[in-house]
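Shapes recur. One chain:

:::
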Amino acid sequence: MKNIFAIFLTILLFSSCSKLPETNINTKDPTKVPGESLFTAAQLNLCDQMVTPNVNSNNFRMFVQQWTETTYIDEANYDITTRPIPGNFWNTLYRSVLINFQECEKVLTETGNLPGDGPAVLQNKLAIVEVMTVYTFSVLVETFGNVPYTEAMNQTILTPKYDDGLTIYKDLIDRLNAAIAKMDRSQGSFGSADNMYGGNTDLWYKYANSLKLRMGMILSDVEPALAKSTCEAAAPNVISANSDNAAVTYMSSQPNNNPVNENLVLSGRNDFVAANTLVDMMNDRNDPRRPLYFTTIGDGTYKGGIYGASNDFTKFSHVNPALTEPTFAGMFFDAAEAEFLLAEGVERGYSVGGTAADHYNKAIKASIEYWGGTSADAATYLAQTKVAYSSATGTWKQKIGEQKWIALYNSGFTSYSAFRLLDFPALVAPPDANSPLPVRLTYPTTEQTLNGANRAAAAAAIGGDLVTTKLFWDKN
């Protein structure tokens, strides 16, 4: 009897299991994430990382001394070891951004177009994914130097090698050129899945060329011929109006709100004030962007907290509430930056059109108008002896560098790269700083444990895994 029962139970179990493929299918949810959804996620993750002021992830606003801290002042004193800052930055870009872009490309290639889309739309989507991939890798190279590239994101390689930073950067420019060449500006792309341009390929074309201009300029002191040809090719097609700015749209509620709102408002914390370094320079020039950047103190003036010191939150200018709105856009590239780059190109002898003074003026005007000022405000500001290109203090690097630093307020990483390239403004580390002003992030500590040999080789190749090690493009 026991044997009969065992046989019956075995048949029943086998019969039940054989039905699982049919009865256990979820017919309501997709079995594979669409490529468009992967693009949206990667785009948002990337913008969040570049925009956030969270001290565990992104301290570039403090590295360039635009903001400073109040009670907890480790980060303003360049302490990046007590928190996993390099690791969080690294992991987000590789795991949350590049992996999603890679999978997006794979899914789009395998599944083809959405209904109603032609082959040109698919080609545009793939080109745009490539542009954002290039940008993400450029950020990693500009931050760390040598990084995993050719063996990165390969599931079969657990300890990827680090490639030479200059070699990577030159390859990224080649990839960017190829992506630009594939764009059909008469056709659409991601549509509503694209929170930056709504799928407008013509605007993506301008952003891609603007990125090309920026990347070409990064190489200006190390690969002058390539920098020149790259910038000259990009110049006619870059962003030239604030209406074309590359900025991601945020929503009014979590988790799709601007990270500045998350960290300065919803957190309930009073961790940041405007830094005296920036406020003092803007006060000295009677800058019309002050009420657009900051709040006033009790006497109606603008006062920045002492950079790197403990500061009473109630006694110094704060970030303007407009920047802390949940829907405030996250900026990747704007018209002001493009014009400053063109001014720099003219000064370097590149054939990019116009004069340095003309591009400088357009850059400042674009910045003031973007932040809510008027054309009259810009004209009054530019008429000052301290601001006018012909009479402002210093070399062209100082003139452009200082005004670009002011204009790139709230674009911490972009400002950080520009500062390292031009060496202006002349920032000084606070008295109690852990190190001189960092010119790179160190490799994540997890890399020492999990990929130690390759990390050690990379550190040796760049001259040491230190925050003071200048990267290949930061020559002066």
